[in-house]
Amino acid sequence: MLSRLSIRNYAIIERLEVEFSSKLNVITGETGAGKSIIVGALGLILGQRAEGAVLHDKEKKCIVEGCFKEEAADDHVLAFFKENELDIADELVVRREIAPSGKSRAFINDTPVNLSQLNELSSLLVDLHQQFDTLELGESDFQREVLDALAGNFSTLHQYGQIFSSSQTARRELEALKEQKTQFEKEFDYHQFQFNELEEAGFTTNELEDLDTELRLLSNAEGIKNALSKAYFDLAESEEPVVRQLKTMLSSLQAFAELHPELPALTERLQSSYIELQDIADELDRISNHINSDAERLEAINERLSLGYRLLKKHAVSATNELVEIRNNLHSKLQAVLNIDDAINAAEKKYADSLQQAESLAAKISAARKAQVKPLETQVNKMLAQVGMPNARIKVDVSKAPLNSTGFDAIEFLFDANKKEQFQPLRKVASGGELSRLMLCIKSLVATSMDMPTLIFDEIDTGISGEAAKQVGIIMKELAAARQVICITHQPQIAGKADAHYLVYKDLQNDSIRTGVRLLNTDERIVAIARMMSGERPTAAALENAREMVMN
């Protein structure tokens, strides 16, 4: 429940703090005193949009803070805290700040949060019904939620939502595969032609690069062979070959090696050079013997390269490996065409299975909704008579609709205000006052099912008076037996039912109007209610009536 509301620097409120009871709290006051301003401030900590224009003092920030007791132990709230990694405390404190710049910040237990988190938490804490929220009653989503609340469908709906989402994912996957198959079939012949061309060419990794190297070798074979032969001749076969000269040098030096300390090292180096040059000569001879000009091989390489360069240009690539990769990709695409029918069959089965599960759960949800139709009609019609609408009737129409995220039911609340059996959609025929009383009746029925700890009604009594207002007060009193109710009202009959009665007033301070709120004692309540009935100076009869309302 909302135990305390603190407001600073909001509209005509400089500083205000209200502590609420856990039962029926009634807020009254003259028109324009600031009752709805308090609700507006409360809306800030429930995630509603903030504007810098609401600041009373443009140099200071606005702070609205609400303290909630007992909600910290609620399973849904605990799950929210765990999911959002927030600290859990015995008291839940929600704060909203608006800076002079208009920038807004929100906090839960002093931890900064975003507006979506604040909205999610507020939906677990408070149900705020404002003057124009009766329009919601005509919306199909709200009407469906009423039946689901009474039927206890929420856990089943959560399970259904997951299965339905899976079925839609499976459907999209199936459609994507079918579209892919259509595209494959369009491109199959072209891909097959390209693949056959590359497969027939049969290029291997780095083949064109290797052939280009071989081509340059064969094209220069004669020059290379001549250079190799000359080098070999100079080293080993000329009149005075280098290798023989080195051997002669080595022999002459070795004879004196023992006579000079540095000669052994030099002879060893000459020995190594002699061996190395002899080896080089042998290698030159071997390579020279293997180089020959081959006209047929040269022609074959040129043809192979010509084919390769043509394919490189065609596919806009520059290396053999890229051609090989293109061929492999084309092969994969051709295989995919052959395999896609199997994938489509598997996807169709997956979609059919998930759709069957979704339809089965949707049927269960629908049956539970339909089971609540008659009890809802009976109870609401009974309560409509109680709140001064004895001839009004509500009828719930449930028809089959295409499967969607909430099942396959189309739900419409129909209304007949004058017992003419001419039921029309509620949104088309009910007046504002009728909608207000209807909303109260319906919310009183679903409050327990939806487990809403705090209900706030801002002037839901618009358009009613007398016995109807008294009955509305009785309904609110019954609602407040199990949960906190906060009601802003102009009706003395409702104010008389309060467990805690707060008066909103205006006060002139330093040539500036301020809004204040105070909790009334019994005598003050009697006077306030009498004024609601007969004006600023209540009559003795009004005071007596007010006393009877309060005491009874």
Automatic annotation (TrEMBL):
Keyword Transcription attributed: no
Q: Which Gene3D superfamilies match?
A: P-loop containing nucleotide triphosphate hydrolases
According to the record, the signal peptide region is: none
Q: Give the RecF/RecN/SMC N-terminal domain ranges.
A: 2-506
Which terms does the UniProt entry file under GO BP? Answer: DNA recombination; DNA repair; SOS response
Q: Which GO terms describe its molecular function?
A: ATP binding
Q: Which family does it belong to?
A: Belongs to the RecN family.
In its UniProt entry, what is this protein called?
DNA repair protein RecN
What is the species of this protein? Flavisolibacter ginsenosidimutans
